[in-house]
Write a structure and sequence with these properties.
The protein has 133 residues and is of the alpha+beta class. The chain has one helix and four strands, in the order αββββ. The termini are far apart.
Length: 133
């Protein structure tokens, strides 16, 4: 039997190890980036489904208020929806085309936002109020 030395060894060369580690590094980086994007998208989707419902709830509260109680305000949704807050603005309608009717319209804007992100959801409606006597 002849001694083959290093030529007959069945191990990996240094170049093969470096290439395999490079491929593994690229694959893991891609997987971690996809996971990060997935978490971010899940947070966005949660806001996009929750915020409209909260805004509609707050808008419904403003629609049933007495006309004299309509005022701008802000707050949060309590322990049920932590990190969600709302801002409501009530303004008189201004329109040269509606004449005296504009005086009886109120513009109600509701904005729902999430405190740890820059997400915001806004809705607007108009409410007809009886003239004050």
């Amino acid at each position: 039997m002849r001694n083959r030395g290093l030529q007959g060894s069945s191990g990996f060369t240094l170049l093969e190890m470096i290439v395999s580690l490079l491929i593994l590094g690229i694959a893991l980086t891609t997987i971690f980036r996809l996971q990060s994007m997935s978490v971010m998208m899940a947070s966005n989707i949660q806001f996009e489904t929750t915020a409209p419902l909260l805004a509609q709830k707050k808008m419904a509260e403003y629609m049933i208020k007495e006309a004299e109680d309509l005022a701008s305000d802000s707050g949060d949704f309590g322990d049920d929806f932590p990190n969600y807050s709302w801002t409501a603005t009530v303004e008189e309608m201004e329109s040269e085309y509606l004449d005296t009717t504009a005086e009886r319209l109120r513009v109600i804007n509701i904005s729902v936002s999430r405190t740890e992100t820059s997400y915001s959801y806004d809705i607007q409606t108009y409410r007809f109020v009886e003239p004050q006597q």
